[in-house]
Amino acid sequence: xxxxxxxxxxxxxxxxxxxxxxxxxxxxxxxxxxxxxxxxxxxxxxxxxxxxxxxxxxxxxxxxxxxxxxxxxxxxxxxxxxxxxxxxxxxxxxxxxxxxxxxxxxxxxxxxxxxxxxxxxxxxxxxxxxxxxxxxxxxxxxxxxxxxxxxxxxxxxxxxxxxxxxxxxxxxxxxxxxxxxxxxxxxxxxxxxxxxxxxxxxxxxxxxxxxxxxxxxxxxxxxxxxxxxxxxxxxxxxxxxxxxxxxxxxxxxxxxxxxxxxxxxxxxxxxxxxxxxxxxxxxxxxxxxxxxxxxxxxxxx
Length: 301
Fold this sequence. Notes:
Blueprint (H helix, E strand, L loop, with lengths): L7 H9 L4 E5 L18 H6 L2 E2 L12 H17 L3 E5 L3 H9 L9 H14 L1 H11 L1 H6 L5 H14 L3 H6 L13 E5 L3 H17 L2 H11 L14 H8 L5 H24 L4 E5 L9 H5 L4
Parallel strand pairs: 1-2, 1-3, 4-5
């Protein structure tokens, strides 16, 4: 586990050269087809040498969830064990990891009328006000969410309106995780040098643009069956360039907003990891830069 641009994929591929592991992708954007450059998927040659399961299999029009991932990942884990090898799960989608490990409570399905009412309130008063309303009925969940996390605020408030029970309480009753089924070892890549991470994020995003990221988003835009509220298009980078193709901003502004959104993503991921139980932290940088792969590999021996 680790923040975006921390070197997770490179380390995983290196480990595969020394250990009997099979890689399983845990990135909620890399699961989608036609989204290669902006999600930093490994190239075809790399995937030939080090195949990744659950990578690029889902159409962007599908709203794939953490619960869907847990079902698919359990199948891949079981298959890898049958091969006599070790599943190595790699990614930064912390909710995917959490649901896979701990399970997910039996939550009610979406209610279109309740969602519409919450959206209308947000349109009228702003998501900060809706977040305050959630704070009154489910402070545990509200304290985990930024007032701009509209989708998750909406879902938490929707669950409370349907069940009369806070989402945090229902989730505490969750079942179906893999923690009791396997010996699970968790490693968190941590970054101490924030300036270095921000520099890495900016350099990587600009390299993506040079590699044709704008054209990739334009192809998705021209499909005609995708929209900005889909989980795929909400991914950092895609959402901002989508705004550009919708005419809401210029390209330079979209790029700047995408870099900022990616930095914010990394910050959220690191916040998750600081509070993550049972994980061994591995520092991947120092004042000079990123540590050598050989030094990182020693943490797994």
